[in-house]
Design brief:
single chain, about 325 residues, alpha/beta, Spore Coat Polysaccharide Biosynthesis Protein SpsA, Chain A, 12 strands
Length: about 325
């Protein structure tokens, strides 16, 4: 097969996954197979019921689909580091010359694979080098842009800087977080997802690692992936839905900075962001969460201890 379409799925919402297969079944380019990695601890009975549902849908695409589960492969559903393990697993399993990554809540036009392959061939010929083709991400059922990815990482503010194409048709970026990566399989295997990094940051780390190997990341305005965005609480929108998520977010930043910094960035992170972050969160704890102020401040300083261990670990 020319292309392996890879999809990581919790394998719980069969309606959403069925829509995904119907979308693939409409693609004008047909030389592709599909790998679905089911990130769920199936019993044999659950797995049989799940697979039977799709086998009975009378979709041609199902004949070119392989489902990887904890029962029929060496996939470990008890992996500890979220999407990173799943992404490394599918990088290993995909058999096509090219890989197209989707999530099961993605929707694209029927010529998406055809356009992605054409753009990759044009760019590879033009630049005489390998590149990763990236779409613009839209909210489902709208023409509203959700993201066109990140120009670079601002170490002084400890966050990626959003990129907008505006009037441009395409641009080169440094980092990408989300769905729709398309490239040669051999190119994508030049880096691995860091299984210590989780919750959104694993994609940023992975694509920056590709960028650092002089692999171009090109985002296009006319390649659209529409994303089924569920309603989220304010804490989830800030990617801090609980104490454990806040701790992981802080851990991500230390690990990310340790891997990618230069001396200037190191200074910006530790002199500008870290003291300001501790001061701001401590002040918030005192003003807004008076009853829990000691516990929150204790958590903050336990984070500093973890930072010390992470940054001094060989």
């Amino acid at each position: 097969m020319k292309i392996s379409v890879v999809c990581g799925s919790r394998a719980k919402d069969t309606t959403l996954l069925l829509e995904f297969f119907q979308m693939l079944n409409r693609q004008t380019y047909t030389d592709f197979d599909v790998n679905v990695v089911c990130d769920r601890n199936f019993t044999r009975e659950e797995e049989s019921e799940f697979l039977s549902f799709f086998n009975n849908q009378n979709l041609d695409i199902i004949n070119r689909t392989e489902f990887f589960t904890n029962n029929n492969s060496d996939f470990d559903p008890n992996h500890g580091w979220w999407a990173s393990y799943v992404r490394n697993f599918w990088l290993k399993q995909a058999k096509g010359e090219f890989i197209q990554l989707f999530d099961d809540d993605n929707e694209v036009d029927s010529d998406f694979l055809e356009k992605s392959l054409k753009k990759r061939e044009e760019k590879a010929s033009e630049t005489k080098s390998e590149c990763v083709i990236l779409p613009s991400l839209y909210y489902r059922n709208t023409e509203q842009i959700q993201n066109q990815w990140f120009s670079y990482f601002d170490y002084r503010q400890s966050r990626p800087v959003l990129h907008l194409l505006n009037w441009k048709k395409e641009a080169q970026i440094q980092m990408f977080s989300g769905n729709g990566i398309f490239s040669k399989a051999s190119t994508l295997r030049k880096a691995k997802y860091d299984e210590q990094i989780a919750r959104i940051s694993e994609d940023l780390d992975y694509t920056l690692a590709l960028h650092e190997q002089w692999i171009q990341l090109r985002v296009f305005a006319d390649l659209k992936v529409k994303h089924h965005e569920r309603d989220k609480t304010r804490l989830e929108q800030a990617r801090i839905g609980s104490y454990s998520q806040a701790r992981q977010k802080a851990r991500n930043r230390f690990l990310f900075t340790k891997k990618h910094w230069n001396k200037k960035q190191l200074f910006q992170f530790y002199v500008c962001w870290l003291p300001g972050c501790l001061f701001r969160l401590s002040l918030k704890a005192i003003i807004r969460w008076w009853k829990d102020r000691f516990k929150i401040i204790k958590w903050l300083f336990s984070g500093v201890k973890e930072w010390y261990k992470l940054t001094h670990k060989k």
